[in-house]
Write a structure and sequence with these properties.
CATH architecture: 3-Layer(aba) Sandwich
Radius of gyration: 14 Å
Number of strands: 5
Modified residues (4-aspartylphosphate): 59
Shape: globular
Keywords: Phosphoprotein
CATH class: Alpha Beta
Number of domains: 1
Pfam family, one: Response_reg
InterPro entries: Bact_response_regulator (IPR050595), CheY-like_superfamily (IPR011006), Sig_transdc_resp-reg_receiver (IPR001789)
Distance between the termini: 19 Å
Structural class: alpha/beta
Order of helices and strands: EHEHEHEHEHH
Number of helices: 6
Strand order of the largest sheet: 2-1-3-4-5
Strand content: 15-25%
Domain Response regulatory: 6-126
Helix content: 40-55%
Largest sheet: 5 strands, parallel
Length: 140
């Protein structure tokens, strides 16, 4: 039996983490999920995870170490650079989005305010990166 794909979610907003935890547990239970409060928290714990994440959902705007800085670190490390990273933000500028793509983000999603839309968006994102694109992810 293979382990459930690991999704790491990095977001500084406790309410949003709670919402995503509920969403994954009720609607996307086939994925294992770990939550981190900011980029530094994630990068500090990353070497100690039992396996590398199959997907990282990364908030763009966070204190301490923001999404772009975290992405930059991941893409500079040979061990982590193939991990698919999806950046998320409710209010990123076009320049910020372009900077993320130039740094190597795999996708950029606007955080929807509607729960149904969020559920659909995350479901599609996980299916794409963890099922449809599985061969690339397995190379991690």
């Amino acid at each position: 039996m293979t382990a459930a794909p690991l999704v790491c979610i990095v977001d500084d907003t406790a309410d949003y983490r709670f919402l995503l935890e509920e969403l994954f547990s009720h609607y996307l239970p086939t994925y294992s999920v770990r939550f981190f409060t900011d980029g530094r928290d994630f990068l500090n714990q990353l070497p100690f995870l039992s396996s590398l994440p199959n997907l990282v959902l990364l908030d763009q705007h966070m204190p301490i170490l923001d999404g772009h800085e975290t992405l930059l670190f991941l893409k500079e490390q040979s061990r982590y650079k193939k991990i698919p990273v999806v950046m998320m933000s409710a209010d990123a500028s076009a320049e910020e989005i372009n900077d993320c793509f130039e740094t190597g983000v795999n996708s950029f999603l606007r955080k929807p305010t509607d729960f149904t839309l969020l559920k659909e968006q995350l479901g599609l994102t996980c299916r794409y990166w963890l099922e449809f694109n599985l061969k690339q992810v397995e190379g991690v």
